[in-house]
Every structure is written in C-alpha cells, then in structure tokens.
Amino acid sequence: MSVPMLDVVGLGHTYGSVDAVSDVSFAVEPGELVCIVGPSGCGKSTLLRCIAGLLPPSRGTVSLHGDRVSGVPSDLAVVFQDYSRSLLPWRTVFGNVEFPLRDRGLSTVERRSRVEEALSWVGLSGAASKHPHELSGGMQQRVSIARALAYRPALMLMDEPFASVDAQTRADLEDLVLQVRASAGMTVLLVTHDIDESVYLADRVLVLSPSPATVVETLKVDLPSPRDQIATRGSDAFVRLRTEIARLIRR
C-alpha cells in the first residue's frame, strides 16, 4: 500500500479551555491540490499551522512521507496571506527568494539556477534586482510563491494566499498556482474562505464544520483541465459544486 504524502489523523488543538480544532483526519496524495474551506473562525489557520509544525497539536498526529511531524519538516514550505510581513524589505527579490536556500547545502551556481527558474515560473525574471517596496501587492505575493517554489518542497502549504489582493490579481495568481503546480508536479494544500476559489483550484475540497473544526465532507472536483476563469466558472458542474459547498458550510 502506498504511503500518502500527508496523513492527518485525529488532529485537535485547544487554546486554554477553548477547542479550535476538534477531530480532523484526511490524507493528501503526491501531486494533489487539496483545498480546505469552512466558516470564518472555524480553525482553518490553526489546522494549517499544526500541519506545518509551527504549532504542536493538542492531540492526534501529522505525518509527511510516513514520518511523524514534530517541528517544521525540511521539505515543506508555507505561503502566508500577509506577504508584506513575510518578505525581507532590505533584500532584493533575488535575495528574498534565495534566502532559505542558504541552509540547503547548495552551491552558489545551484542557488542562482533555482532562483532564476522560480522567478521565471511566476513571471518576475525582470524584477530580480528590485526591493519589495517597489512592487505591487500581487507581485510581492508572486515573490513569496517563488521563494516556496525555489525551495522545492515536497508539500506546499498556502494559508489564504490571495486574500489581500484585488480580484483581477487574485485570478492571475490562481492561474499561476495551477500552472506551476503542473510544471513542477507540486503537492499543494491550500486554505481559503472563498468557495469559488476552492472549486476552481482543487482536485478535492475538504469542508470544515464551525469551530471546533472537523471535516464534514470531502468533495472530488471533476472539472476538465486546463481550467479557465470564464469557461470553468460558467460550467454547470462548477455551479453545482459551489452550491453544494455553500450548503454544507451554511447548514
């Protein structure tokens, strides 16, 4: 039997006497893009931090490649919502993307190659020498994604990565994730509050209950690829899935 890329079993987290996450179990297979949606305040970000090893769960286990997670795994990368706080303002775009590679034991030539490839993937090859304050919000988030891609993680976690950008930039970044995921064979777990976004991006959508979170439904998204912001979102299958997820969340 093959081992899933990510295996979450009975995960729960309590802040003091308050349960934020109750009992969450699911698995993510290599190469999948799985989205997690749920009501506001249900514990989505807490769940993701536990999976990333940034927050120890109060109960349950998280395993990556079959190995139990205790601390941040070396082959995992996280893209946060607040790109302005995740980038180093005194470093250039190139320097920000290269920074986490310095502890990977890579030569200067290999680091440069990875950075240039990642910047090419996100359409920022011409911005390598700029600093974050010279970029728009959408471009800054592209730098954050490029940094994660250059690290070449087995699993990329994304926590509401497009919530702070305008609608057009959000659509562009959604398509970017699908493109680089296909190019790099990336496994992605993405948390979002946007139901339409989850259906557009995912192979599967996990729907969480109100706090304390548990998984109430797992829906397979059987939409044709490549996906298109107009044709895909206008299809009957897309509308049916969106409606079903909305019903589950509001139930």
Automatic annotation (TrEMBL):
**Coiled coil segments of this chain:** none
Q: What keywords is this UniProt entry annotated with?
A: ATP-binding, Nucleotide-binding, Transport
Per the record, the domain of life is Bacteria
Q: Could you tell me which InterPro entries the record lists for this protein?
A: AAA+_ATPase (IPR003593), ABC_transporter-like_ATP-bd (IPR003439), ABC_transporter-like_CS (IPR017871), ABC_transporter_ATP-bind (IPR050166), P-loop_NTPase (IPR027417)
ABC transporter domain span: 3-235
Q: Which Pfam families does this entry report, sorted A to Z?
A: ABC_tran
For this UniProt entry, the molecular function terms from Gene Ontology, in alphabetical order, are: ATP binding; ATP hydrolysis activity
Question: This chain belongs to which protein, by name?
Answer: NitT/TauT family transport system ATP-binding protein
